User: Fold this.
Amino acid sequence: MNAVVGRRAYANGAVARGEMMQPAAEHKGCRTSANAGQASCGSRVGQGDLPTGIWEKVKNHPCYSEDAHHHYARMHVAVAPACNIQCNYCNRKYDCANESRPGVVSEKLTPEQAVRKVLAVATTIPQMTVLGIAGPGDPLANPEKTFRTFDLVAKAAPDIKLCLSTNGLVLPDHIDTIVKSKIEHVTITINMIDPEIGAKIYPWIFFNHKRYVGIDAARILADRQLQGLEMLSERGILCKVNSVMIPQINDHHLVEVNKAVKSRGAFLHNIMPLISAPEYGTVFGLNGQWGPTAQQLKVLQDACEGEIAMMRHCRQCRADAVGLLGEDRSAEFTTGQVMKMDVKYDLEMRKAYQDRVEDERAAKVTANQDGLAKFAGEMSEVTLLVAVATKGSGLINEHFGHAKEFQVYELSTSGAKFVGHRRVDVYCQGGRGEEDRLSTIIRGIYDCHAVFVAKIGGCPKSNLIKAGIEPVDQYAHEYIEKSAIAWFRSYLDRVKSGEIQHAKRGDAAIRQGALISAA
Assistant:
């Protein structure tokens, strides 16, 4: 569904509840180009209209650049256990190594342990470019530990970018320290600007030595979050806003949140799905609150995309995550293991490795541009989605049966646009396919016309074809976007010749999903 339809769906939902849709405020952050829907803020390769200073901050940051997340890694260190608010979608468990969700860690670290771990990871994974502190509580509710960690890392590994994630409650009190510590990226979780909605998300906050509840708590939190965002933007700090999409609570309201944060200089907006499985023990999970489908999430993201770019490649990382987005290597770097490592931090080695990565990215860009040139002057109203199995590096390099997720691209004559990812259960277990899992995988990508894989077995191939999804394996180990564009070119040719008839897969279900969300 395109952005216009998405905006209409959410506008209609707001009108039905008597809300007024306000005009977009003046924007000071990241913009999206009108052709191809591609952001000039660095969410894709190419400096675009970004000032050189900002481009240098985002070009190899896997969260701030969609293309960079194929090539560069990040890590979080869990030095901040205390939190000053309670969220109904959060339950901060420890020793849950098999879980992948915000707030979860296997062990807490001291600042000294954290810097040792950073050096060990950066030596082992030279494409690791970003250190983030995201919990497991709120970093700014633990300011001494947080800023000491950043200061130690800045001295020991000056080439690593520093990143802070916060709920924003006490953010205005720490702006000067953030600037002094050379933290160039801050993520603020903002789920509402309406205190009545906020009261349904946050039972309480603890502020200025006092506990606040209900609407009073939400009003203080919203005011402080927006104030902190504006203060950071004025000081030149790049800000990403995270928002959790909670159906029937804040889903439509996030359109207004989007306007509010972009008017205060937010660089990116990341709308994430609520994680609400009851086994996680959150208030929402235990009360039966459901999360949105991938299709409903895309409708909302499309509705919000405009002058501010949407982050669509988020994996809702653990507070001790290590590696590329979508992978977790934290088990390789426990405190015990790190203390045994012979760590020799080599800036020149890291730079040489990352130079090779940049050469690969440049080659990919050239290949993609050559592929897109085939569409020069051609226009078509056909737009469709395809799923891709990949291990990273921007390549189609994963076996269908081994895929833990599929990356989804929207294809048109303007090119291939990344629009999200779909997590799935791995099909092959012990060398054999699990047929019950195949049906869930197909349901997860039912709105895609094709799935690109490095290899696929006969059984899943035939089942995909029966479901109307074309399995594509002739582009194995080639660049994703170049291959998708080439396949789309042949798809349009087949439509023109009458060999196939184009059908909009999943539109009715997506519309139904939007209606369910608007109910």
Observations:
- DSSP finds 16 helices and 18 strands in the chain.
- The first strand starts at residue 73 and ends at 76.
- Residues 433 and 459 are 9 Å apart (CA to CA).
